[in-house]
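hiii, so i know i said id send this last week but things got crazy w the move. better late than never?? heres the sequnce for the chain we talked about at the cafe, plus the structure i predicted for it. fair warning i was half asleep when i ran it
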Amino acid sequence: MGFYLRLKLKAFRLKRFLLGHDGRRRKHMQAKKPSWMMPITHGYHVVEHNLTRDGSDDTDFDSVVAQREQMDHTELWYFEISDALIGDRVTKYMQSHFFDKKLEESHIRRKGKETLKRAYLGVRAKIREEHKLEETSRMGSASVMVINGEKLVIANLGDYRTVVCRDGIAYQTTGSYQQSTQRHWSRRLFAACQSRNAAGVKHSRGSELVVRSERIDSDTEFLILASNGIWEVMKNQEAVNLICHIEDPQEAAECLAKEAFIRMSKSSISCLIIRFD
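okay and structure toks below
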């Protein structure tokens, strides 16, 4: 039996959920334990949208989703941040077309990426049809599926982004990113080049969809799922540096969101931190 949380929050009004932290990093846990028993903690923070240009109050807020499913020896976590336009549509699709199917572990690993991609493509097409929107219209969402603490399936739409922190280095999940199995120095070099290449490029990609999967290894510390309100005022590595020393993911999410607010971000500010302990 899984559970599902969908949240709409006022500015800086918080709730905690599912936090249990012993202060130890994932790579220091006993190797004999099954990977799906490794604790995954998370926290989130949503800031009320700024006033619209005409001065009226914007009462639409980002949706934050956390869902856990246990199927025999398979543990599934699903996390998502979406703007008000998308809402919980992707989550509902995943619930009916994936989680409710009670698939075997081999099918879960094989079909997770495919189903998540179909969910986003279907929702995007339906929203465009309903609102008569063009290709460049701004829709935003970021989703992460964690399978047995070993595999990530990640989807990003628009300017909502997922950043993975490995050994203190930020890696953005984009279509051109290739997971490296080389040593740490090569990872750092790649991250530095990635940051330089992104420095002078506008991040807005309209409603572009990126879906990919990758492994969770001993260097994987935490993930940041965040709206464009975070990324328009700080770079990937800057966000990682800001919260890497904060082991409580709820505190980390609050810190990141408040920093974006202080920097006067003009877009919606929401973030969800997933830490592998």
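btw Residues 8-33, 51-57, 175-187, 189-204 have pLDDT under 50 and may be disordered. thought thatd interest u
miss u guys!!
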